[in-house]
Amino acid sequence: MNPIQLRQSIRDMLNEDIGTGDITTESLVESNHQSSAILLAKQPGVIAGLPIIAQVFQELDPFFDFQPAVAEGQQVEVFQTIAVMTGSTKAILTAERVALNLLQRMSGIATLTRQLVDKLDGLSCRVLDTRKTTPGLRQLEKYAVRMGGGTNHRFGLSHGVMLKDNHIAFAGSLERAVEKVREQVGHMVQIEVEADTLEQVAEAVQLPIHALLLDNMDVQTLRKAVAMIDGRVWTEASGGITPETIRSIAETGVDAVSVGYLTHSATALDISLDFVEEGTEIND
């Protein structure tokens, strides 16, 4: 992740929450007061985002000590300690909500991703994310997908050509759309085409493209499409993929499955921040 962009994003998040000041904490806590606290898992899941939330606290206290108790991408159990921190009490109280929002959101995405990746155990098919991300959080949400064992699709519109039905309709035909795009972009830029029928697949594989997105096809149609393509281009299946159907879809021979709900519908992982008294023994 771009460290400059990440720092600016963290500052924007803190500014949104703090506004002109944390009037509750500022009214109660002395400026030099120090405390220790832990992050505690309240349900099983995969942790993602610890280096990011360390920076959240350090933005308010440059000397803040943040010690992860687990690795990024690690599975944790209920009541397992995730991290131990010591620093300004004001920093802990003021940054708590932003830090937890990020950690819970990212860990929820990583947990859901891991569940789907595990369902493809033994297969070469990858689990991809999409651009269906929370505006402003794409870099972090896609990072969480990686921590869950998934693979990132393009990060934005500038990272590759994706010709969908509306693009093709505007150009007049798929062949014309590919031709016009290739005239404008360099040879290093890959072109992917969306197809939802076998007729479109047959047309697409005759053109100078790199990948085919097989959209909303049932398993039987996917198998026929993969056979028609015969390895000439990279393939991904998308649409209607659920935890119950993902393995049968992957077993058709596609190279990847793309799943939008990894980022748009993941449930936040329940994590708490609890103060600890000096001398208290912390259990991992």
TrEMBL record:
GO terms for biological process: NAD+ biosynthetic process; quinolinate catabolic process. GO terms for cellular component: cytoplasm. Its EC number is 2.4.2.19. Involved in the catabolism of quinolinic acid (QA). This is Probable nicotinate-nucleotide pyrophosphorylase [carboxylating]. Belongs to the NadC/ModD family. InterPro entries: Aldolase_TIM, NadC, NadC/ModD, Nicotinate_pribotase-like_C, Quinolinate_PRibosylTase_N_sf, Quinolinate_PRibosylTrfase_C, Quinolinate_PRibosylTrfase_N. Pathway: Cofactor biosynthesis; NAD(+) biosynthesis; nicotinate D-ribonucleotide from quinolinate: step 1/1. Pfam families: QRPTase_C (PF01729), QRPTase_N (PF02749). It is an enzyme of class 2 (transferase).
